[in-house]
Amino acid sequence: KSVKEVLFFPVSLSCTEGVLNPGVPCLCPLPHTDSDLHRLMRRLMEARRSLELCIFTFSSPPLARAVLLLHSRGVRVRVITDSDYMATVGSQIGALRKAGVEVRHNQSSGLMHHKFVLIDKTLVITGSMNWTMQAIQTNKENLLITDDKVLVSAYVKEFEELWNEYDPA
Amino acid sequence: KSVKEVLFFPVSLSCTEGVLNPGVPCLCPLPHTDSDLHRLMRRLMEARRSLELCIFTFSSPPLARAVLLLHSRGVRVRVITDSDYMATVGSQIGALRKAGVEVRHNQSSGLMHHKFVLIDKTLVITGSMNWTMQAIQTNKENLLITDDKVLVSAYVKEFEELWNEYDPA
Ligand SMILES: [Zn+2]
Ligand SMILES: [Zn+2]
Q: Chain B residues with CB inside 8 Å of A150's CB?
């Protein structure tokens, strides 16, 4: 059965620990209601072999936790991001690098403005949303999720081209 | 046959008059080569009944020309945009309003950060790209185009909800 789904934001703040550790009760004071952020994170947590992130700005702590958990499980994580924003306050890029995640960024003028994700090279998530708490909790944003082979392969090609273009070596 | 296509940017500057007036030779000094901007504009020009734009920033002159041409042909054009950016230099929102295009914008805090388009409510174009010359000619950007009914209907619903939410009356 094919995957086609659209997520809309903003969502209210609620706890996402249950997505990372399903079945483990959480005692934190946040509400434990489901949202489109949970749906996004559950898609990410489906990754078994590879996760490619091509994200303009990445500062969301729950999304960073999901990515670091996948990395610790042996999923190959590769991140492409924008050079101007990776050094700003709250960016998670430093923490990902410190954990051993491969990160590359644009060198030239012009923004690396993509916001797409590839899961096991079989699912793409793309849209308007950067991985920031403001986007998730305040902005009007959309993410489209599909496993259509034609669409996914276009994004796989773009990722690999940028990965090579941004090779610092 | 179903539509599924991904456009990638940046593209080199080239003349787009041929999309607006097919078959009419253009004598301007720009190159007359095809690009993903032309592919985007050809999709827009397919609109026969309605065009809904839900775009964070809209300053691109060729895209404004396409929208104004559709409006003049009797296509119902509705625009949702972000209040902070509609008044900035180069914004096309004033020109669209002056021509009689219906425009609404967010009232609250948080950005109206969507960048999606509905064509005859049967095709959706969504992704990272704002309708600015910087995005088109300088940034890494993507737009996904699909006529999948499940996906399109999710965006139609979102547009109508925001259209009502942003009713100034
Ligand atoms: Zn909790
Ligand atoms: Zn020309």
A: 4
Nearest alpha-carbon partner for A53 in A118, A147, A130, A144: A118
Q: Tell me what the mean pLDDT of segment B22-43 comes to.
A: 95
Q: Which residues of B20-49 are buried (b: 16+ CB within 10 A; e: fewer)?
A: beeeeeeeeeeeeeebbbbebbebbbebee
> Which residue out of A113, A140, A149, A157 is catalytically annotated?
A113
Q: How far apart are CA A44 and CA A62, in angstroms?
A: 12
pLDDT of amino acid B91:
95
ipTM entry: 0.96
Q: How far apart are CA A92 and CA A111, in angstroms?
A: 18
How far is it, in rounded angstroms, from Cα A140 to Cα A128?
9
Cite the beta strand spans of B1-49 per DSSP E. 4-9
- Give ∠ CA A154-A156-A161 in degrees, rounded to 5: 95
Averaged pLDDT score across all residues of chain A: 96
Query: C-alpha A162: how far from its chain's center?
Result: 17
Q: Which of B4, B8, B129 sits opposite A158 (nearest CB)?
A: B8
